[in-house]
Specification:
Layout: H1 4-32, H2 46-53, H3 69-79, H4 84-107, H5 110-121, H6 124-127, H7 137-149, H8 154-167, H9 175-183, H10 189-208, H11 216-222, H12 230-245, H13 249-255, H14 273-281, H15 284-287, H16 291-294, H17 299-309, H18 313-333, H19 342-353, H20 368-407
Helix pairs in contact: 1-4, 1-5, 2-3, 3-4, 4-5, 4-7, 4-17, 5-17, 5-18, 7-8, 8-10, 9-10, 9-14, 12-20, 13-17, 13-20, 19-20
């Protein structure tokens, strides 16, 4: 009897925070419906394909059977009588629950955990995927946060990398940051390099056994904007980041710098972590141009900075105000909720993409002279007054981050 009581207490101590986090995540997901309602059907294209794969994921049929994790989860939910669309909403709720759990553990405050999760719920990390239902990206975001949490435990960290690759192989774009994060948390370059090679090797063995329409060769053949239009693509990505995260980026600016929260080894790994993480994000646009999805990966620096910010009462009060402000700005920027990236981005991207048929030969890189006119058209459409306002907003957010250091000192 004496042994059983501590065992029950340990189990209760383990599950209780998760139960609370799941309730918080579910409640915030419901509240986020006030900003962007969930879609009533899978997103046309990839969302529909994922939903179709969920009918029988172990047949490894469909255009990308290597992305097994989401269809497998949806299939298991179907065994409980739930649709792929319900599973898609669950993934967004799971993301919020993991954020709440993570932030509560690290901030030492239940209110802090709720506020950080609320910040994510009011950002593109969740709201982009409301209309883009049945995409696997929320699972990739969950894995990134768990990788930070378990950075000091290689036996958890590297298998988690492999699991993340089964949601989407983009995790391997972050390999320099992953190695850096591990080595700043007790790892060694040689040993963890072998762990990385083992995870990649296991994935490639699995990948060699399935046939996918959307493989690396497909993306390379159709990346007509590479290399000459990459600066334009990154510019669009930065603009979408600004729109999808809005005033919350002031907290990210607060966390930057040599003495900032993001330079902590338990955050992004250290002073070079933010740059290495950015260096993992930017090449994603070599293979695909849906920048509204890649913008959501700014979620990780936001969560890490906001968690450190929420450790103090003044930080929690300021974060609550920023969440309310961000929710209002998001609604203002997204009058048509189905337009990921907002009304302005949709207008700019639509205009620029309309120029492509006269400048691109199918499956051929864009010629330098056409890339120049393409970029010029983008700048002309974007610069005044939208671009000027975007640059001014970015400067104001950076200045706001510096001002917040008076409320919550850095470090």
């Amino acid at each position: 009897m004496t042994d059983a009581a501590p065992s029950h207490a340990r189990a209760r101590d383990f599950w209780s925070p998760w139960q609370t986090a799941l309730l918080v995540g579910g409640a915030l997901l419901v509240l986020s419906e006030l900003l962007v309602p969930g879609a009533a059907a899978p997103f046309p294209g990839h969302g529909e394909r994922f939903a179709a794969m969920a009918q029988d994921p172990l047949s490894f049929d469909g255009p990308f059977p290597q992305r097994l994790l989401w269809p497998l989860g949806a299939w298991l939910f179907a065994e409980l009588g739930m649709s792929p669309l319900t599973f898609s909403h669950f993934c967004s709720g799971l993301l919020l629950a993991v954020v709440a759990w993570f932030a509560r553990r690290r901030s030492g405050s239940f209110a802090g955990g709720v506020l950080v999760a609320a910040a994510v719920a009011a950002s593109g990390a969740v709201l982009v995927y409301k209309p883009m239902a049945c995409m696997s990206d929320p699972l990739s975001l969950v894995s990134l946060l768990l990788l930070v949490q378990f950075a000091a435990r290689p036996a958890v960290f590297w298998p988690l990398v492999l699991v993340s690759a089964l949601a989407h192989e983009l995790i391997f774009f972050f390999w320099p940051w992953l190695l850096y994060l591990r080595c700043r948390n007790g790892g060694r370059w040689t040993r963890d390099g072998l762990w990385l090679a083992a995870a990649l090797g296991a994935y490639l063995v699995f990948r060699s056994q399935v046939t996918a329409s959307y493989g690396t060769s497909y993306y390379l053949e159709n990346a007509f904007w590479f290399p000459w239009c990459m600066p334009a693509m990154w510019g669009l990505w930065a603009f979408v980041v600004l729109v999808e995260f809005g005033p919350l980026l002031a907290v990210v600016a607060w966390g930057l710098g040599r003495d900032g929260a993001l330079a902590d080894r338990a955050a992004l790994g250290g002073r070079w972590g933010a740059l290495l993480y950015l260096a993992g994000m930017l090449p994603l646009m070599v293979l695909a141009y849906d920048v509204m999805r890649f913008a959501t990966f700014v979620f990780l620096p936001l969560v890490l900075a906001a968690t450190a910010f929420a450790r103090r009462p003044a930080g929690r009060a300021a974060l609550a105000a920023l969440v309310v402000l961000s929710a209002g700005v998001y609604v203002w920027q997204h009058p048509v909720v189905s337009e990921q990236g907002g009304r302005l981005f949709t207008d700019i991207a639509g205009h620029v993409l309309s120029l492509l048929p006269t400048r691109v030969v199918p499956k051929q890189p864009m010629a330098p002279e056409h890339a120049w006119t393409f970029t010029t058209a983008l700048v002309e459409r974007w610069w005044w007054p939208v671009g000027a306002a975007a640059l001014a907003s970015a400067a104001a957010l950076f200045a706001g981050g510096l001002a917040l250091r008076r409320v919550v000192p850095a470090g």
